[in-house]
Structures are given as structure tokens and as C-alpha cells.
């Protein structure tokens, strides 16, 4: 999930059962492996920004260093027989909310069938490419710890770095910027001693959709079922949860 619900999802992931933790580590491993391959085999996070993001997420989820190293080695060719590719699916949830699903899979036919089945069994409708993506902007988003600074201090630093939007959430700051500017924003914030807790590329809804409490529960159930699928990496919605 993206936006406001994304950070609560991260918190939830840190307290999951061993089974869920293993599933999460598997997804993080795929993201690391894919980052190395897409980066032309570059295994140094300093020269492969996507890899840096993937490793940062793995560390934030307390993924063991050995797991991270194995995923990096796999991406560099240690397991050449394994091939994953990125997929993006779109659909509608209960009350017509828009949903975008990002995944990594070694069998596209299996994954599309499973994702479609999850939509249909949980009050949703599987859509065609482009059916809901126009309702979102694809941006880079960072969650930062204010580290004793006021929101005005954070805003001043963020604007200088080219951040396009900033808001406060649960005592932290959420910053949005253009995707090509993400690395620069991270650099500027770190130089100012600001701790970045998470950063990544998200689909941000242009106009969040308001729901009743009952409908929120239905949407949350569908989103959680999608997130539980081993091939699914990220789920985004325009529902205001």
C-alpha cells in the first residue's frame, strides 16, 4: 500500500510471524536480485541506486546480512538459471477503488491467474493495463525522522533539495519528489543529519477516495490478500485508509 497506509504496513511487517517473515524476506531477496541484474550486474550500492534502495528496505525489515549477500550474488550470476521479471497489474476493489499491483515472477501465467483470482474472490475486478493507472502519479517518496527538527526546518531543507510535496504523519515527515531527483534528495537530507527510514517509488493517488468504515474493511482485506501473494512486491490504492 502506498501513501498514508504504507508506513503502517511497514510497522506491521516488522512484527509478523516467522512464516510471514520468511515470505517477506523472499520478496526482499527478489527485489535485491532484480536490482543487481537491472543494474548490469553492479553489486556496489554506491553505484547502483536501485540496489541501495532494495538493501535499505531489507535492513529496515531486519533481514540477515547473509540473506542480503546471497541475493546480491544471485543477481550477479551465481544462479543464472533463475529468472524473474517485473509485472504490473491493475484492477478495482470494493466500492470501485483503484488498485495497482507490482510484482516479480518467474512464471507470468501463474502470477496473473493468482492475482486475478484474489481480486475476484474478494469483491474486486481485475482490469486491463491502463484501466486505473491514470488515477495516480508515479513519484519517489521518502519517510524521514525529524531528528529534533521542526517541520519548518525539514521543509526548508526539502525545498532546497527539490522536494515537491511534504506532510507530517505520526511525528515523521513524508516527502515526495520526482523519481530522477530521489538520489539527490537522499544525499541532501543525509548531509543535514536527517535519518531516512524508508524511500522508494510509489503510485500516489491524484484524488484519494473516501470510504465508509465498512467499505474500508473490505478494501483492507483485499489489499492484504494481494500482499500475501509471494509474487507481489507492492500494492497501491487510491482509497483513503
H/E element string?
Answer: HHHHEEHEEHEEHEHE
Shape, principal axes of CA atoms = globular
Structural class: alpha+beta
Determine and state the CATH class of the largest domain: Mainly Alpha
Instruction: Report the helical percentage.
Output: 40-55%
Low-confidence stretches: 1-5, 7-16
CATH topology of the largest domain, anyone? Arc Repressor Mutant, subunit A
Mean pLDDT: 83
Percent of residues in beta strands: 15-25%
- Tell me the distance between the termini: 10 Å
Descriptive report:
- With 241 residues, this protein is an alpha+beta fold.
- It folds into three domains: 4-78, Integrase, N-terminal zinc-binding domain (Arc Repressor Mutant, subunit A); 87-120 and 209-237, YebC, transcriptional regulation domain (Alpha-Beta Plaits), CATH 3.30.70.980; 135-205, YebC, transcriptional regulation domain (Alpha-Beta Plaits).
- Helices cover 45% and strands 24% of the residues.
- The chain has a four-stranded antiparallel β-sheet with strand order 3-1-2-8.
- Strand 1 (85-92) and strand 2 form a beta hairpin.
- Helix 2 packs parallel to helix 4.
- It is globular and about 50 Å long.
- It starts with a helix and ends with a strand.
- Mean pLDDT is 83; it is low at 1-5 and 7-16.
Amino acid at each position: 500500500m502506498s501513501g498514508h497506509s504504507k508506513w503502517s504496513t511497514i510497522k506491521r511487517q516488522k512484527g509478523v510471524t516467522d512464516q510471514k517473515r520468511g515470505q517477506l524476506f523472499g520478496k526482499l531477496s527478489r527485489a535485491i536480485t532484480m536490482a543487481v541484474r537491472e543494474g548490469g550486474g553492479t553489486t556496489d550500492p554506491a553505484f547502483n541506486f536501485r540496489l541501495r534502495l532494495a538493501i535499505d528496505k531489507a535492513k529496515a525489515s531486519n533481514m540477515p546480512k547473509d540473506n542480503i549477500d546471497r541475493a546480491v550474488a544471485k543477481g550477479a550470476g551465481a544462479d543464472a538459471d533463475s529468472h524473474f521479471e517485473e509485472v504490473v497489474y491493475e484492477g478495482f476493489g470494493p466500492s470501485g477503488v483503484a488498485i495497482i499491483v507490482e510484482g516479480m515472477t518467474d512464471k507470468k501465467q501463474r502470477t496473473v491467474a493468482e492475482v486475478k483470482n484474489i481480486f475476484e474472490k474478494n469483491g474486486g475486478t481485475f482490469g486491463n493495463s491502463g484501466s486505473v493507472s491514470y488515477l495516480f502519479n508515479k513519484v519517489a517518496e521518502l519517510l524521514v525522522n525529524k531528528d529534533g527538527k521542526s517541520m519548518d526546518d525539514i521543509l526548508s531543507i526539502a525545498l532546497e533539495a527539490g522536494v515537491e510535496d511534504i506532510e507530517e504523519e505520526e511525528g515523521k515527515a513524508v516527502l515526495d519528489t520526482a523519481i530522477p531527483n530521489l538520489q539527490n534528495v537522499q544525499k541532501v537530507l543525509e548531509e543535514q543529519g536527517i535519518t531516512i527510514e524508508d524511500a522508494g517509488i510509489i503510485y500516489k493517488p491524484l484524488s484519494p477516495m473516501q470510504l465508509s468504515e465498512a467499505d474500508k474493511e473490505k478494501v483492507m482485506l483485499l489489499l492484504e490478500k494481494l500482499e500475501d501473494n509471494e509474487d507481489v512486491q507492492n500494492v497501491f490504492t487510491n482509497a483513503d485508509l
